[in-house]
């Protein structure tokens, strides 16, 4: 009887302790985070950004945080990734702003043609604009931004017809990643076709498009060296990318874990993403050379023609922003003031 009483008391103590833990929210220190993205696991940012982030979060939290990464669009197609983060279908998502047309109009300023010398330069400027301009910040009000950066300089690739001059582009169906590149390609005389990067290989193979614009960093990750026969180096644009976190997922993190996540993301993560792309661009060039693709550097005089042909893209972008009550000129002026500054 005495042993039974002791056991009963222990059970009561355990139940009371369990109730206290539930009421204080300290029942479990474990945090499970799900990261999703539509790119292959061999992609440079999966390997050199997200996997290291997972390892650091798990190690520095002493196992409190567990991270699972789902690549390849396993949880959602590319165009739906941002909205899935907002809705909380997963905690963190990596995607392109251009995959959700109309959602980030002012952010498109960084994608205007012929502005940049590298992803790192574009990212440094874009991150500063994000930090300093409330109208740009407002475009991301539904999420916690962990990082936003750009890929390396966009080049032009074709499967059969080489492009050496503006006239060669006329009528070619060229894949575009987002609305700004659609305007750029149209100004150059091409027929833009929008699609996520994951659909490019199949579209090229089936002849749905004649070519594409994308950074050299994508050549190996998307196996484009198997299909691309001609590369025209024009350094024409960059595309913005974002790693966003569901607001409630972020707020639910314990204070120390939130501080840990903050220390590993932000500007640090943005610049890492840009550097990864610039470094991977060299590997992409190597892959094209190994595949015996014809690589052509656009001549300076021809480059001037391309810049002149696309100058209207910037003018029209500012006009469109202003017509919709957005400070397009202010944002563009800010961007120009930051280019070239360290």
Calculate the terminal CA-CA distance, rounded to whole Å.
79 Å
**Most strands sheet:** 6 strands, mixed
Helical content class: 40-55%
CATH superfamily of the largest domain: Bacterial extracellular solute-binding protein, family 7
Task: Please provide a brief summary of the model.
The protein has 342 residues and is of the alpha/beta class.
What does this molecule look like?
The chain is an alpha/beta fold and 342 residues long. It folds into two domains: 30-150 and 239-279, D-Maltodextrin-Binding Protein, domain 2 (3-Layer(aba) Sandwich); 154-238 and 282-338, 3-Layer(aba) Sandwich (D-Maltodextrin-Binding Protein, domain 2). Helix content is 48%, strand content 17%. The protein contains 14 helices and eleven strands. The chain has a six-stranded mixed β-sheet. A five-stranded mixed β-sheet has the order 2-1-3-10-4, sandwiched between helices. Strand 1, helix 2 (44-60) and strand 2 (65-70) form a beta-alpha-beta unit. The protein starts with a helix and ends with a helix. 42% of the residues are buried. The model is unreliable at 3-11 and 13-27 (pLDDT under 50).
Top keywords for this entry?
single chain; about 350 residues; D-Maltodextrin-Binding Protein, domain 2; 6-stranded mixed β-sheet; 5-stranded mixed β-sheet; 14 helices; globular
List the helices and strands and how they pair.
Blueprint (H helix, E strand, L loop, with lengths): L1 H23 L6 E6 L7 H17 L4 E6 L10 H7 L4 E5 L22 H14 L1 H5 L4 E8 L3 E5 L7 H4 L3 E4 L2 H9 L3 E4 L5 H6 L5 E5 L2 H4 L8 E4 L6 E7 H5 L3 H10 L2 H24 L3 E4 L2 H24 L4 H11 L4
Parallel strand pairs: 1-2, 1-3, 6-7, 6-8, 9-11
Antiparallel strand pairs: 3-10, 4-10, 5-8, 5-9
Helix pairs in contact: 2-12, 4-12, 7-13
């Amino acid at each position: 009887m005495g042993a039974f009483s002791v056991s009963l008391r222990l059970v009561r103590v355990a139940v009371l302790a369990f109730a206290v833990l539930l009421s204080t929210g300290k029942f479990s220190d474990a945090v499970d985070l799900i990261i999703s993205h539509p790119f292959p696991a061999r992609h440079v940012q999966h390997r050199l950004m997200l996997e290291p982030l997972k390892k650091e979060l798990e190690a520095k939290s002493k196992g409190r945080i567990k991270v699972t990464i789902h690549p390849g669009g396993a949880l959602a197609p590319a165009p739906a990734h941002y909205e899935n983060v907002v809705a909380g279908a997963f905690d963190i998502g990596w995607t392109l702003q251009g995959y959700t047309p109309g959602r980030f109009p002012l952010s498109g300023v960084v994608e205007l043609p012929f502005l940049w010398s590298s992803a790192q330069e574009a990212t440094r400027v874009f991150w500063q604009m994000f930090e300093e301009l409330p109208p740009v910040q407002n475009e991301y009000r539904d999420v916690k931004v962990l990082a936003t950066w750009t890929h390396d300089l966009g080049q032009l690739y074709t499967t059969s017809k080489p492009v050496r001059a503006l006239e060669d582009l006329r009528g070619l169906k060229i894949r575009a990643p987002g609305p700004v590149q659609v305007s750029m390609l149209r100004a150059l005389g091409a027929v833009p076709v929008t699609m996520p990067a994951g659909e490019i290989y199949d579209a090229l193979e089936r002849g749905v498009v004649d070519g594409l614009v994308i950074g050299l960093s994508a050549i190996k990750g998307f196996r484009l060296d198997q299909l691309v026969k001609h590369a025209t180096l024009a350094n024409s644009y960059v595309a913005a990318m974002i790693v966003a976190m569901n607001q409630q997922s972020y707020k639910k993190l314990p204070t120390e874990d939130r501080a840990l996540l903050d220390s590993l993301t932000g500007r640090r993560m943005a610049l890492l993403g840009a550097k990864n792309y610039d470094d991977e661009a060299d590997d992409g060039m190597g892959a094209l050379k190994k595949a015996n693709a014809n690589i052509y550097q656009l001549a300076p005089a021809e480059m001037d023609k391309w810049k002149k042909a696309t100058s209207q893209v910037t003018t029209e972008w500012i006009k469109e922003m202003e017509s919709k009550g957005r400070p397009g000129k202010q944002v563009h002026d800010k961007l120009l003031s930051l280019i070239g500054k360290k």
